[in-house]
Amino acid sequence: MEKLSIKEIFTVSLSVVLKHWKLLLLVFFVFIGLVILALLGIPMFFLNVAAILSVMLGENAKLAQSLIIVIGSMIGIFLGLIAFYALFGGIIKIALNIYETGNAKLRDIFSCPFGLAVRLLFASLLYKVLVFIGFAFLVIPGIFFMVIFSLFPYFIVDQGCGILDAFAKSSHLVKGNFFKILLIVIIGFFVPILFIPLILIESYLYLKLKNTDKKNLECEQCLP
Fold first, then answer.
1. Which residues pair with 186 in a beta bridge?
2. Is 47 domain-assigned?
């Protein structure tokens, strides 16, 4: 696997940020606004609907009331998370388009289909579980899992890979660039507000390394 220099990674990414800063700033504010709406508004809507239905049942159906409220809340949270990962996938698509075509538009933030958003959600849950287990037993395995699987979203969004295939491809891609990607992960952990520039950095890494080893980094089964 080709090794990239830290200077190249940050120089190229910085030039992209400076060239497309207006679009990226607009994407940032749209994303924040829609995420707040998705993670708060959607769950609150379903919670209110559930509360209304529970009132209609009357006080004689307290168990049914509780179940409706719980189910309504769970549906709202699930749909809110789906919306979040759809937007996240859209930002990845914007970053990939900038590098591949030099042309990206704000509407691309809505380009991640429902199926890929669901896959991103469950892949992210698996990723967090693996990292948590790694940190729970020993710190080093947690850091290892955090880094080698960190690029799985790009395989899902770009190629439509299945979850396990995306994890395997991420692990293969990271070889030879572990500490560079570790640095990016650390920056993202401590300065999360820089998530859009970091997505641009990771997108550059993904595309650059994928093009040097297409045989091993193209998904065996691309799902729609």
1. none
2. yes
Tell how far CA 63 is from the center of its chain. Answer: 37
What is the number of domains present in the chain?
A: 1
In a domain, 12, yes or no: yes
Q: Taking the model in full, what pTM does it have? A: 0.86
Instruction: Let me know if residue 140 belongs to a domain.
Output: yes
Nearest to 9, CA basis, from 210, 186, 181, 211: 181
In terms of Cβ atoms closer than 10 Å to its own Cβ (0-12, 13-18, 19+), residue 93 is buried
CA R_g for the chain: 20
What is the Cα–Cα distance from 89 to 116, expressed in whole angstroms? 8
What φ, ψ does residue 107 adopt, rounded to 5°? -65, -15
pLDDT at position 219:
63
Residues 62, 76: Cα–Cα separation, whole Å: 21
64-89 pLDDT, tens digit per residue, is 667 777 777 788 888 889 999 999 99
Phi, psi torsion values for 70, nearest 5 degrees: -65, -45
Domain of residue 178 covers 6-217
CB–CB of 150/115 below 8 Å?
A: no
